[in-house]
Amino acid sequence: MVNNPKALWENCLRLVKENVTEPQYRTWFEPIVFESYNEDTRTLLVQVPSMYVYEYLEEYYVGLLSKVIARCFGQTAKLTYRVVTDKINGLSQDVEAEEPAKIEPAPVTSRGNKAPTVLDAAVPQDLNPQLDIHKTFQSFIEGDSNKLPRTVGLSIAEHPGKSTFNPFFVFGPSGCGKTHLINAIGVKCKEMYPQKRVLYVSARLFQVQFTDAVRQNTVNDFIQFYQSIDVLIVDDIQEWATASKTLDTFFHIFDHLFRLGKQIVLASDRPPVDLVGVKDRLLTRFSCGLIAELEQPNVQLCKDILAAKCRRDGLKIPEDVIQFIAETANGSVRDLEGVINSLLAYSVVYNSNIDMRLAERVIKRAVKIDNKPLTVDDILDKVCNHFSVSQQSVLSRSRKRDYVLVRQVSMYLAQKYTKMPASRIGQLIGGRDHSTVIHSCSSIEQRMKVDKAFLSEMNSIENSFKLKK
Q1: Side-chain half-sphere exposure of 188, counting CA atoms within 13 A
Q2: CA 130 from chain center: how many Å?
Q3: Rounded distance, CA 392 to CA 144, Å?
Q4: Beta bridge partners of residue 38, listed in sequence order
Q5: CA separation for the pair 44, 80 (Å, rounded)
Q6: Which of 63, 70, 358, 417 is the most exposed place for a label (fewest CB within 10 A)?
Q7: pTM for the complete prediction?
Q8: Cα(235)–Cα(257) distance, integer angstroms
Q9: Does 121 score more than 80 pLDDT?
Q10: pLDDT tens figures, 57-95
Q11: How far apart, in Å, are the Cα atoms of 389 and each of 74, 346, 349, 383?
Q12: Are the CB atoms for 359 and 321 separated by under 8 Å?
């Protein structure tokens, strides 16, 4: 029975302090406040001062926290955060800590005073699989664009080397989830078969290791090490296109593993047929299993990914903001995550709600898109510059003729070039209602029909957007 949970938490903090630097401890762990411990559910509740602190702890210290809590409270103890979301009104929300996949790096053979590496011994040894334990099948949201690769990947993880899907070659554009999927295969496989030697390696790291082996005259040890792997996962193999010696060496490793029925998983930004510089003998081997394409996620899948992240992280983002981000993030999962992280940081730093205006500002900075859709802020900026008035004046309640004209022009162009409803445009341009927007658009349309000079001005403003009508 736990008699003094707070004292146990203090023990946790002492253990943490022994494993981090003093500045790290003061910044991230001193602000944590013990709330309670439920012995029935074995749940430890602690309070953190902001969502940013919670995100940082989960990103960089989840493993350390899990270990010290298991040691002090027991292996089955769970951690839940109470995140302060509004300091002024004392509002908070509870978020359950993400449980890392149970993959423990095994100890490697020591080399005295030198740090051990996975290539030290030519005989099989335990090794760190180098997997990202947060990239799992559970967090890989299924949609039309990834259903086949995800289903096949899960089958491979459950039965490595025992299916016709060997090698498994997955390709697709940047940001579509290739690295997540192949990591998930490795994580699931290692969970189900702890004894198997699973290794994830980027093509670039493989090439660096090979170059070092050539320089140190240990190429045979390098090859023998990789030939001892049960599940070999290689990412971004398109980077080998001009590395003929690396490709020749990989051919021998591939051939050995394939003949022994070991599982090989490869990822690239293009299909095998487009890998220029790769010899036919290797291309035919890449193609003899299953080639699966990961397409860019459509808007619905982007919305599902965003909704899942919000549920997991305890975020509250309005539906219209999620829709806007999903339509704007160019089908990139990385862009989606970047936008959400940026929204969180802005809302915490400036103590503001996550709304459409904030989303528009973040999108412009976080998403690199050649044909970015115009935002209301873009339109206001262009129109105000053209008429030489300040945005503050236009957004005010002033009925001065010049300000009213700029306000109406902005509403007209916002309705023309954005997908927002009139009510949302009105809210963003001075807090007006939808009837004001409709009246403004009608007034501008009528004036353009009878005033050629004004029509010329409107054309000039629209040309500054560099958009086609």
Answers
A1: 23
A2: 18
A3: 45
A4: 43
A5: 6
A6: 63
A7: 0.53
A8: 17
A9: no
A10: 887 788 888 889 988 888 888 898 888 766 566 666 777
A11: 64, 27, 29, 9
A12: yes
